[in-house]
Amino acid sequence: MLFDSIRIGKMVLENRLVMPPLETNLANDDGSVSQRTLDHYERRARGGPGLIVVECTSVDPVHFHRNQLNISDDRFIDGLSRVAEVIKRHGVRAAIQIQHPGRQIVLPSVQSVAPSPLACRAIPRVPRELTIDEIEELVERFAEAVRRARDAGFDAVQFHGAHGYLIAQFMSAWSNKRTDRYGGDVYGRATFPLEIIARTREKVGTDYPLIFRFSGDEYVPEGRGIDESKVVARLVEKAGIDAISVSAGTYDSGEWTSQPMLMPRGCLVPLAAEIKSVVDVPVVTVGRIHSPRLAEEILQQGKADLIAMGRPLFADPDLPMKAREGREREIRHCISCNTCMRSLSDSGPVICLMNPELGREGVPEVKAPQPRRVLVVNGGPAGIEAARVAALRGHRVKLWDERPSLGGRWSWLLKPYIASRLKLLAEIGVTVELGKTITPQIVARENPEVVIAGRGLKPEIPLIPGMDEIEPVQADDILVEKKEVTGRVVVLGGGSTGFEVTNMLVQRGRQVCIVEEGASLGVGLEPMTGTVLRRRLVDRGVVFQRRARIIRIAGMTLVFTDEQGAEQQLPFDHLVLALDWQPEDSLVDSLRGGNYRLIPVGPYQQPVRYVRAFLEGTTVGREI
Length: 624
Fold this sequence. Notes:
By secondary structure, the protein is of the alpha/beta class. The chain is 32% helix and 19% strand. It is globular. The two termini are 50 Å apart.
């Protein structure tokens, strides 16, 4: 079924794989189409999905963020027409998503607007309540945006009614407290999107395909759940929508909008199945559907009509082609690490852990004027990326690491990335040697012209009275399965490493208490992963002690004052240290003064710094 054709209104798709709208931050600052935007979408089209829905495009000249596509004026039509053309030249249907952020606009310099003056937790700025005249003007803006999309050559338009943006804000009792015709019960709150659809049909007729995307469940207090969403689905179908795409969540429940690896595969499919049970138009499902096999199962079971794969097509744009040709083993799978989402939240262009070409399609590395002998020592993420880029630029590159695996401190967490990069490095001619003894003399004998040296990290045992009388265990030794602990476990440190090691321990039946001196927990984790992991740990009985001031260790008891300042005694069988490590520069220092250019890179304490590590490595590789 996955490669059967299907009709959305008058539009026929060659297969049922959809690339949903995922932001890239590749547009020009004013929202116009850049060459990088064109290259990105043409690369995805070459892979052969049935439909590509171009990322959320602003209907408003003010309420959009830098590098977001814009469709608020006729001057953008020419650029957008080129996007539609590069997609359609490969036999793929092209749609575009139109959006207004409402209160979820990220720019602090712009006054946000919303149905009601209520802030969300993620962006705690109170928006200004829209007037009736302004709402009617926005209805016209949406309809005009659809007209521009049609004039630009797009085969369809998708309304963004999901993830807590403006249309979603009107539909939700969580964000809409109005008492006029745009508020009240679910029918009143649906008035805004229904007026948009009606006005749009007046402008483009009944034959132009329209898709409505919304969250089947917002997963926030007072938010719209599946029962109200089924009502909305029937209303928009009756109003003239040709297909419904079912997602979930808002900015305040972001783990449902871009599900991290801890979420079950296909976790949003039940929502799509519920919507499909009450409408006759095709239903699109999404949410950690990373394999063609799972996609086929969902279709065969009748839970949806089309499958949206977003991040998987970031990781491997050829996924549809490989699936069609029976080459599933060759697919470079997305691992739901949310590196892409993190790169966007840092206001940069999109980056993928598994696909270094994402965002740079059609931009080959510029060959160096003079090939050089480059040696990379200690292969953390920055060193790996430096080696990759340097090799692509024509340098002769070797990568050495004293450890048995690449990845530095995070080798246990980066296994899919490391496997992918090892394959890529071999393909581009990088010689990799692991478990290599590295001394200044050995490096000198190699006669490199450039040495890129990864700065190291070393654990430190905190100066706590009584610590010298016990044998604490480093969390990293547990994570790489060098050591095991049993019984009651106290984990010192509630950051990313503390969460990861605790998750491993509770899966093995250990009783764990995390003790953290600071006020925040899970620092260093990708935010959506952190939300899910903390919830999981609480469900499994983990106790958290924040703002703890450690006094001493007495025998096998940790003595500390808790958040209220009361002294507590916490007995344990093992004490695990999950604290920040300290930079360790002995190798870098030993290599100074050699007959080569020395470039130190790193180190990076936390996995959330992957993006910075990649950027540093690629920058270094391009500067040689």
